[in-house]
Amino acid sequence: MAGYAAAQVDTGSIVGTVHDSSGAVVPGATVIIANLATQVTQTEKTNAEGEYVALLLQVGTYSVSIERSGFEKSAQSGIQVNVRSRLQVDFTLQVGSVSQEVTVTGAAPLLDTQSANVGQVVDGKDMSDLPLNGRRYDDLVFLTTGVTSVTPVMTNHGEGAFSVDGNTSLQNNFILDGVDNNSYDENMNTRSAQVVIPPVDTLSQFKAQTHTCDVSFGRNAGSVINVTLKSGSNGFHGDVWEFLRNKSLDANDWFLDQAGKPKAQYQQNQAGSTLGGPIRKNRSFIFISEEHLAIRQGITRISSVPTPLMRTYDFSEFKKAPALSASAPSQLQSQFAGCFSGAALTATAAEFQRGKMRRGSQWPAGSSGRLRRPARAVQLAQIRCRAYQLPLAAHVP
Residue 169 has what DSSP assignment? Predict the structure, then answer.
């Protein structure tokens, strides 16, 4: 029986080679990789070529120490492991006793010589500090080279719509903690390209990979948005937030302003909290979060309603149908065929008011159709007109 297992694509790795002071490799050295936040350690041994590989490291800051009998202990701290990073950290051991230790504190090399992946890492601090309308983390993918916005029509369908290197907005692959997070909604009816959109404060970081992804990724021709959530540590940490937006600093709608009406209501409250800590120190941890969004919004709709003259069956305010020459395209000729001119409309209104349009009466010349029950048509028109408000602005097409 075949099973399915998701790849650990949200982790990083550290590799390196251990030499002695003469440049010879040091096999059999013990390599201890420790997460500074949780103190979880991983132990490896150098092979015959003096090389070591530490895989499946969770995102975080690490220290690497090397021990070998006959040599001083060497350690390097402050190594930041990001999503899909493969860092090379080499060591040179000095002859001495193990009780002596050389510690180097610093960041990992800026140049990634172990992978051909091209992309941009956005960490939690950047996500918290940079302005985000609606607090959607995926808006920050535009910090990555090659990412462009798509058409307004597609953008209005929902979040997560962007183009990478000319591919369509549906060719991006969203991964959350190593799990497929794609909605597979070709028409964006769910208003999102993702199944789960985590709050910004719960994210440790994400990486937008745009080029030369390795074989652990497939399915998509566009980018891979690889997201990793925060984890608990040996200390309790958390935060509480609320973001408020209202109409106080918004401009009034132009049509409402012209009609002397106040701004429509708008108030958005977005609140939440996070909490992380140890269940058992150095062993197991927990991290929880919640977020709530409430929007109260008044909607302004613009539509055409009958003017006072139209309510008396006087349609003289309409502009005349355009005069078309015989050489005009057939589409235009059919579009305006049968339109009433100003004089015909006025005559029709007078016929309605006098009630002289009898059963089977013809419409004015140049139009088509017959009025079967003129009295009933007038009655229905009056009822329909009373259902409309009077226009706030006088504009007749």
Answer: G
- Domains of the chain, CATH where assigned: 12-105 (2.60.40.1120), 116-231 (2.170.130.10), 234-302 (no CATH), 310-386 (no CATH)
Contacts of range 124-129, beta carbons closer than 8 Å, 24 or more positions apart:
124/201, 124/203, 124/204, 124/205, 124/230, 127/200, 127/203, 127/205, 128/200, 128/201
Looking at the DSSP bridge assignments, the partners of residue 13 are 86
Residue given tokens 């991290």 in the structure block: 287
User: Nearest to residue 176, comparing CAs of 193, 143, 160, 198?
Assistant: 198
Contact 227, 174 (CB under 8 A): yes
For the record, the structure tokens of 81 come out as 């492991």
C-alpha distances in Å from residue 225, one per residue of 120, 172, 190, 194, 363: 10, 7, 19, 11, 63
**pLDDT tens digits, one per residue of 185-244:** 776 777 788 998 999 999 999 999 887 777 777 677 888 999 999 999 999 999 999 999
Q: Do 227 and 10 form a contact (C-beta atoms < 8 A)?
A: yes
**Which amino acid, one-letter code, is at 339?**
C
Tens-digit pLDDT profile for residues 314-330? 666 766 555 656 666 55
